Every structure is written in structure tokens, then in C-alpha cells.
Amino acid sequence: MDVLDLERRAADRLPPHVYDYFRAGAGPDSVERSVDAWARFLHRPRVLRGAGGTDTATAVLGTPVASPVLVAPMAQQVAADPLGERATGRATAGFGSLLGVSTNTAVPFDDVSATGAPWWFQVYLFRDRAIPEQLVDRAVAAGARALILTVDITGLHHPSPEATYSVDPMEWPLSPEAERLTNLDPDVRERARGEGGWFDRSLGLDAIGWLRERSGLPIVVKGVVRGDDARRVVDAGADAVLVSTHGARAFATSVPSAYALREVAEAVGDEVEVYVDSGLRSGIDVATAIALGARAAFVGRPVMWGLATGGERGVRAVLDALHGELVTAMDLLGAPALADLTPDLVVPA
């Protein structure tokens, strides 16, 4: 799959301010650095294993999936295709995987569930706690299977001074059908447009317990790039850790997820599942991630480019291509099952 060509085709179809937002990072080179980090690993293939087949099935927090290629939560998907997560969810369901759903989705939760894809809800904690309370309650009622607490961005209306996108989505001229935070009541949504909708900068470990008590769901903490932080959130009750730099949008000079993954995985061992996102562009990247300790990998921008260029079919084509690359990589590495993707297969370049 030529992801750069797919992005170019998406850029031709999207309004400039939308493409600008989707492609941008926290700094001028942050996305490129995040992608390049995965390509800097080399591999030590095994030979003459005589396995005769490849098994990519696994489970994430108890949900069976056919592939460790998962779909990352991404905001404003309706700007890429009017169906948004309705199309992405149907493609994900057909592929046999799991969908992350953004706080800033413009699609009702019930419509997401109707796609048939198992899904986790990505949640921010805002200054006005009525906002996440209502979102979490409604996500639970609609069938979300876990919550992804995002902890690496603390200023929704105050992007990094180095941020490379020019128009904040809060200012996009979207139709009422594309309203961000659509799962809120109108009065709560209006509060979210003011200071109540700013992120809670006092966020601490107690947020993990608060969310679990509120929802009764497993909590995945997203945005961890240090082993000591991973240990702290697990000790505080997190059910899983997601190594993430928010697609290289959180902090311009953050260590890439590819370089942070092994440290985080070693810090928590087998106590909880570890996932990764940010910068993955191929099935080889996914194989590398599994070998470094991830249970599964969330993929973002390639899926968005597929949605922009082909709707549901475009998303499915991306997922199938990534999976096919993963199967080929596993075969060539001498790893017939995901458990055979072990750290000794990977070396830094």
C-alpha cells in the first residue's frame, strides 16, 4: 500500500482546511519523525520453521479480533466522508476488528453500535465534568466496551505554538449534521464551547478510578510514553496502556511511540495489555509493534485517507492491505502466530 499516494489523493478531495487539520502535527516535523521511527528498526528473521500457515487472531480486553490492526479514534470523520464513523465502523466490522470512537465524533453512539463493530470510547476530562459524565453515560448505554482516557493533551482550545494546522475544528463551517460533540444535549454542548470545554489541567491518577466507577467499563490510559508512568497508571487501576503521541499532535519534540513502546511494555510486564498508535504506516510496522510488546496497534491517518478517498470501501481496502502486509511479514520473519513475534526479531538500525 502506497500511503503517500493515498494521502495525495485524499488531499485532492478534501477542503484545504480539513486536509490541513488531518495531516498536521504538533510541530513542523513531528509527524515525519513519528513515521520514520518505525522504519528505523531492522529485523532478524528466523528460517526453516515449517509452520505452514499464519494466525493473526487475538483478543483485546476480552474482545476477539481477527487481526491486531485496530482503528484509532479520530475526530471529525464526517469531514472526510458524510457517513463518518458509520462507514468506518462497517468496514471495521467486516474486517473483524475494533473501532475507537472520538469524543469529538459527529455521529450518534447508537449509529456507531449499529455498524456491528465492537468499539471503545475515547474520552477527555473537561473542566465541566457534566460534559464527560453525559458522554460516558451515553457511550455505556449504547454499547461501548471500554473507555480510552486520553492524558497527553491538556489544551483543546490552546494548541501548541508549533501546531501546523491553521483552522481549529471549533471554527469549521460544518452543517448541523456534522456537529462535534453531537452526543451531548444542546445545553451541555453549548457549555462545552466555552471554558467548561477546556481540558482539566489538574488531571491526576484519581481520574482512572472515577471513570471506572462511573462507567463500570475497563479503562485504557492513552498517551503514555514512559515506563514509570505506565507503572503508576497500572498501579492506580488502569486495565490497559496505550503508548501514543496523539498522532504526533501532543508535543512537538515528544519521543516517538516506536521508541517508547519497549520501555512501557517491560515496565508493566504481563499485568495488563499494551497497545500502541502514532506513525504506523504498514503491516511491517504492526509486526514490529507486536514484537516490541504491543498486544495490538491502532492505525489512524491511513484509515482517514481511505475514508476520504473511498468511504467504507476505502477504509476496508486500507485495513486489508495492512493485514496482508502483516501476514507477509510474519511469514518472512518465521513467526506463524502473533506470540512468535518476539523482541529478538527486532533490532534498532
Short description:
The protein has helices at residues 3-13, 16-23, 30-39, 85-95, 109-114, 130-142, 186-192, 206-215, 227-235, 257-268, 283-291, 301-333; strands spanning 41-43, 58-60, 63-65, 69-71, 99-101, 119-123, 147-150, 219-224, 240-243, 273-276, 296-299, 346-348.
Taking all Cα atoms into account, the compactness measure Rg is 19 Å
Q: Give the overall form.
A: globular
CATH homologous superfamily - what is it? Aldolase class I
Question: How is the CATH topology named?
Answer: TIM Barrel
| Overall mean confidence score, pLDDT | 91
Number of strands: 12
Protein structure class: alpha/beta
Query: How large is the share of residues in beta strands?
Result: 5-15%
- The number of domains is 1
What is the strand arrangement across the widest sheet? 4-11-10-9-8-7-6-5
Gross CATH architecture: Alpha-Beta Barrel
Order of helix and strand elements from N to C terminus: HHHEEEEHEHEHEHHEHEHEHEHE
Oligomeric form = single chain
Binned, the helix content reads: 25-40%
Biggest sheet layout: 8 strands, parallel
Give the CA-CA distance, first to last residue.
23 Å
